[in-house]
Amino acid sequence: MGIPMDDIHAPTVASGPSSGHSARDVSKLSMPELMQEKERIETELSALSSVLNSHGVTMRSTLTTFDGYPRDDIDIAQVRTTRVRIIHLRNDHKEVMTHIEKGLHDHFARLQNTPGTTTNGTSVPSSAPTSVTDNSIADAGILGTPFARVNSVEPGSPAHQAGLKTGDLVRGFGSVHWLNHERLSKVAEAVQQNEGRPLSVKVARKNESGSGTAELDLQLTPRRNWGGRGLLGCHLVPL
């Protein structure tokens, strides 16, 4: 009777491992290893997306003709296998990102409990050595990775009063960082949700001499009626 057409779109999951990479318990990986795993998964996902693109299909494209027969213009077996692998990798990526996020939250929680901040919130120098965990996070490039650049600042705006300058690289905007900013959409959400309340904005700024970079933690309060458009008065562009 031929191949049942109603099953042609359903991915076929192999009983064994789906790739040459053995299953890893990501909960036991260090932060640098998690970052390496994230990059590996994203690289493979990019390659698999190229495979689908070469066939002119997506994860949702139909594999049958209008009258229910398998399409003869694509390699259906390869497309189905590729889709299965993409599904596996997306799940793996989600799990890895969950552990990275947890590591970040744990790290910032430790920072808040670390001596070196006065009762009025002003930072003071601390000679306490950085822990091994802190170093592993920093070495992985998670903390402080810039995700946006200040493209312009309006005179007299909240951004100007906070001390932001054109060319500053944004490392943190409230709770938003490079792993969760979602093309700066989360920055916009943070601004809307904190109108009239100060937000910590961490930026890296090149020294005027051109050598070295200054790390600044600015307090920016989004507000209206400052004489210009928006709540900030600055333009951010994603990196």
Automatic annotation (TrEMBL):
<dbReference type="InterPro" id="IPR035269">
    <property type="entry name" value="PSMD9"/>
</dbReference>
<protein>
    <recommendedName>
        <fullName>Probable 26S proteasome regulatory subunit p27</fullName>
    </recommendedName>
</protein>
<dbReference type="InterPro" id="IPR040815">
    <property type="entry name" value="Nas2_N"/>
</dbReference>
<dbReference type="GO" id="GO:0000502">
    <property type="term" value="C:proteasome complex"/>
</dbReference>
<dbReference type="InterPro" id="IPR041489">
    <property type="entry name" value="PDZ_6"/>
</dbReference>
<dbReference type="Pfam" id="PF18265">
    <property type="entry name" value="Nas2_N"/>
</dbReference>
<feature type="region of interest" description="Disordered">
    <location>
        <begin position="1"/>
        <end position="26"/>
    </location>
</feature>
<feature type="domain" description="Nas2 N-terminal">
    <location>
        <begin position="32"/>
        <end position="109"/>
    </location>
</feature>
<keyword id="KW-0647">Proteasome</keyword>
<comment type="similarity">
    <text>Belongs to the proteasome subunit p27 family.</text>
</comment>
<dbReference type="Pfam" id="PF17820">
    <property type="entry name" value="PDZ_6"/>
</dbReference>
<dbReference type="GO" id="GO:0005634">
    <property type="term" value="C:nucleus"/>
</dbReference>
<dbReference type="InterPro" id="IPR036034">
    <property type="entry name" value="PDZ_sf"/>
</dbReference>
<feature type="domain" description="PDZ">
    <location>
        <begin position="150"/>
        <end position="205"/>
    </location>
</feature>
<dbReference type="GO" id="GO:0005737">
    <property type="term" value="C:cytoplasm"/>
</dbReference>
<dbReference type="GO" id="GO:0070682">
    <property type="term" value="P:proteasome regulatory particle assembly"/>
</dbReference>
<keyword id="KW-0143">Chaperone</keyword>
